[in-house]
Structures are given as structure tokens and as C-alpha cells.
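sorry for the late reply, my laptop died twice this morning and i had to redo everyting from scratch. anyway the thing you sent over, i finally got around to it. pasting the sequence first so we're on the same page, its 429 residues, then the predicted structure underneath. double check i copied it right bc i was rushing
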Amino acid sequence: MMFRAQKSLLPKAAAAAAALSLVLTGCGSSPQAESDGPVTLRFSWWGSDTRHKMTEKLIEAFEAENPNINVEGEYGDWSGYWDKLATQVASQDAPDIIQMDAAYLGEYSERGALLELKDVDLSKFDQPVADSGKVDGKQYAVTSGVNAMVVLANPSLVSASGVTLPDDEAWTWEDLNDTAAAITAASPDGVYGTGQVNSDAAANLWFRQHGKSLFTPDGELGFDEAALAEWYGYQAKMRDSKAVPPASVITEDASASIDQQGLSTNRFAMNMYWSNQLGALSKASGQDLEIRRPPSLEGKASEARQFYKSSMFWSASSRTKHPVEAQKFIDFVTNNPAAGEIGLADRGIPANSEIREAIAAKLSPADAKTAAFIDEISDELGEAVPVPPAGSAAVVEVLGRYSLEVHFSRLSPQDAAKKAMDEAKSALL
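ok and here's the structure:
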């Protein structure tokens, strides 16, 4: 599935997570001067073998510029990372530097587990990107890289249909539906104008354009039943026009690996994805996929309330004995040109605009295309997306599940919205 709900703390970590509120209440670090003697920092991250090797090079480059600081890496894969971190934090043994995800940022910051990052330079960040790491007005995380929600189009399938795609700076949600429906009608059986448009990211963009949001800065639902019913009504319209596949195909596509999804197997002429997925999808499909803006309510890109999604964050433990050095490392991987050349787009397109420009010539063709798009929409951004509250993953699951009830025609948009709101409210209690 293109947009998978992030998990909350995994079941095995539940006891450790519960203990956090007791262990960390009121904890924090007072300002400290840089240490005089040698310092050792522990740094934890998740990722592939490629990321591990690249991160080790980042560490080596930092240590070369800071011979008084030694950085010890602790890494693993996503599945075990959050169990381990929850246990470490609860036992007051957290790493000094933590690769953080948006799904957990609110939870850890609210429990006092994260250091306020006052000494990391964010002057080259777009303001909404800088603000995305804030909780209650305090900077607890720094974006490592950014993605944007996009419509990816298969030029071969679009051309074969004879349908012309509208100008992406001026198309509306109605245009998306009408265009996709026309492509489906003009294409062979099994080829659809677009894949499902029912993700939480698409819903959030829709809500933002209607003056609402998925979540509010204080951790509440940012939409009401009427707004959700309207969103589900749009799902029903796409279902009835055959702009999107039947519900059974949507369900199958949602559980498929990315290289087996409809856009990758040349069955969908368009689909919504995060921009960083362009390379993998282009390779799988054998097509030079095009990046296009998502639609807007009034057909004005400047009013689309587009947003950058932080691919991941850098954070530091509130209990670190070396807050100055920990922030120095975060500042290095964020703002140092040498670090930018090492990391390239592995953790997303660099959030620092000067680093983006400096590494552009070294990016893969797909990443270069993505970076150019990220720059192109920088003046079209809305306000920062609030950090998701605890329970947000359950809300996302509820919204997706009831959108499928609409696609299967088992519930009306109004009935689906009522049931979904009841469950979503309970998830945030």
C-alpha cells in the first residue's frame, strides 16, 4: 500500500512505554558547556545495510572534524527498533542521539524523553519543515529529509488512452476524477485511470484545503463528521465513475509489495505516492514516471495547502550527559556539505535548501527529479503538519477501513463517517 499507517509502540514494548510516564516525568537537561575531555555519544538508527554503511561514513566524517568526540552506532531494522528504544528509555539508558519517526515524536516528547534542540541551525529550512519537529512550541526534533505527496503518472498508459492530463498547477479534485474516469473508459480491461485515493495523506490534504486537518496541534481530531462524510462522498464518486479500481482490487493492491502494485505493473495510469518512491516505482514499471502536483480545491496550486512530510527526524535524549555534543552531531548531519554529499537522499531530500542545491548533480535521476519538484513547490506550502498524537495510528486505520466500506458499497458516506468518527474519537482518549 502506498501510505501505510505507522504503528504505535509495538506490543512487546507496552510495559516499557507505560513506564516512561513514571520514569521521565519532569526530567530534562539544564544547559551545559561543552565537555573538556573526550566524549562518547551513542547513536541509534534503523535502516537497510546500505544506510548502515552510509551512516558509518557520516560518523567518520563527524569524528574527523571533532576528534574529541567518539560516536558509537547502535542500529537495526524497523521491526525491533521501537521495542528496544522504549525499553532503553524506560530504564534510563537511552542513546544520546536518536533517529526518530513522526509517529513516535509526540509520544516521546510529551513524556519528557527528548532534549529541546536549541543549538541546531535551522535557518536554511523552509519554516513549515523546521516547525514539523516542534511539540508545544519546542524543537524536539530536526527533519533529516523531506518528501511530498504527489501524483505519479505513467506517460505510456496516458498516451495510449488518448486522454490529456490537465495542468497540475490548475487541476481540481473533480478534474482528477473526470480525467481518471476517461482513461479507464478508453483503456483495455484491467487498466484504471488511477489507483485508490483514500490514504490518510490524501485525506489530510483534502481536509487542509477545506480549512481543517487530520489532527490539531493539541492532539485532537482536526475534522468533523460532515467533513469526513464529504471525503467519503468523493470516494463514492470515484467508485461510481470507475476512475479507481473495484474495491477488491484496491484491497489487493494495498497489501502488495511496491513492485507488485498497480502503478508498478502498468495497470494504473496514475496514483498518489510520496515523492521519494519515484525511483522504485519507475524501475519496477520500466517507465519514466512523471511527477505531478496533487489536485487543489479551487484549481490553484498556491492554495493547495501542500506540505512536506519529514521522512524521519534527528532527536536527542533528555538524559544525555553531553547535550552540547549531541546537538553538534545533529547540526553536522543537517548542515554540513560533506555530510550532505555522503547521505544524499537516503533519508529523504535534504531539508537544508543549500545542501539540496549542492548535491543536486550527484543524485540519481529519480532523486534529482524529486529534489527539483521539492524546490518547485516550496512557495506553495501550507502550515506545518502537527506532530501526530498518541493513538494516531489507530485513527488512520479506522479512516482507511471505513473508506473501503464505502468502496464496497456496504455503507453510505454518511453512515461510514458516523461510525468512523465514533471509533476515531475513542482511539485518542
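The radius of gyration is 22 Å.
thats about all i looked at so far, will dig more tmrw
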